[in-house]
Amino acid sequence: MTKKKRRLPPDMAFPVSVSRLKEKLAGVPQLAEIKIEYSYYKGMSLRRLRKTKYGRAQKAVESTSIEILTASYVLWAIGLTNPNFCVDEDSSHNTYTNNCWSIWLRAISLDVLKDVRDLLENDGYAKLAEWFKNTNSFAGSIGNHRLAISFDGKQLIYRQHDRY
Question: Would you say 86 and 93 are in contact if contact means Cβ atoms under 8 Å apart?
């Protein structure tokens, strides 16, 4: 399932199309279950970030990376405090009884688009497909697994987060 794309400013574009993504993830067992969503958020400038409590605490560095996409698998445990609409079988908010595989594609500047696409072709798609295949072993188990792919101006950065 693919969510509708938002209209982007003329200097932004999505780094990959859905058809290209599906082509590159063809060998992934959960391909039919993956929900693809688009995100457009320019983010905060480094100067503004430094003025925030978070920026001062983290001592924001000069070079920041651009997030390209995030793949995730989520399945939460049902508890007494869960709202009913989240546990309803037909609800889109249901991450309690349904496996939820998703990919968030983020819009990036046209200045780095070609570099990002080349890096995704060289290594990015293969690592993404490998992550989906490895994480498939967690299907049906409670947890949150995430792979974020970012671009730092020279190379792709892969950050994996697992919480059981």
Answer: yes
Residue with the larger pLDDT of the pair 137 and 16: 16
pLDDT value at 106 more than 80: yes
Nearest alpha carbon to residue 161 among 141, 139, 140, 144: 144
Helix (H, G, I), strand (E, B) or coil at 60: coil
Query: In whole angstroms, what is the distance from residue 156 CA to residue 144 CA?
Result: 22
Nearest 5 degrees, angle CA 116-CA 111-CA 64? 70
The DSSP code for 71 is E
pLDDT digits (tens, 9 = 90+) for 2-32: 555 667 778 888 999 889 999 999 989 888 8
Cβ of 40: how many Cβ atoms within 10 Å?
A: 15
Name residue, tokens 């290594």. Answer: 123
Q: Considering just the CA atoms, what is the radius of gyration of the chain in Å?
A: 17
Write out pLDDT tens, residues 38-54: 877 655 555 666 666 65
Write phi, then psi, for 64 (nearest 5 degrees): -115, 155
Beta bridge partners of residue 146, listed in sequence order: 72, 161
